[in-house]
UniProtKB/TrEMBL annotation:
It is an enzyme of class 2 (transferase). The keyword Chaperone does not apply. It comes from the Bacteria. It comes from Salinicoccus bachuensis. The keyword Hydrolase does not apply. This is GNAT family N-acetyltransferase. Keywords: Acyltransferase, Transferase.
Length: 91
């Protein structure tokens, strides 16, 4: 699966305008990332694409030495269920 970086997002698909799956984020006043939403088309459902998008977001935040405020319930659950990812959740 090829995950690409777009403008304040990571996505799967040909382009960021019509992605097959996406995780959308913004940057807060502290410079940390706020994950607003994660979406996966029904055609990719059950393939772990959403989890892989969260993992990509966590890797990106770690490389940038930033935390993540997961407003998206799916992202929060994935991060809370993994001890390493949980360390990057912004309190």
């Amino acid at each position: 699966m090829d995950i690409k970086k777009g403008e304040n997002m990571f996505f799967v698909g040909e382009d960021e305008v019509n992605p097959e799956a996406e995780i959308i984020f913004s940057v807060d006043d502290d410079g940390d990332y706020v994950v607003e939403s994660t979406r996966v088309d029904d055609s990719l459902s059950g393939e772990g694409v959403g989890t892989r998008l969260v993992e990509t977001m966590v890797e990106f935040a770690g490389q940038e030495d930033r935390k993540i405020d997961p407003k998206c319930p799916f992202t929060r659950k994935v991060m809370e269920d993994d001890a390493e990812m949980k360390k990057l959740i912004k309190n």
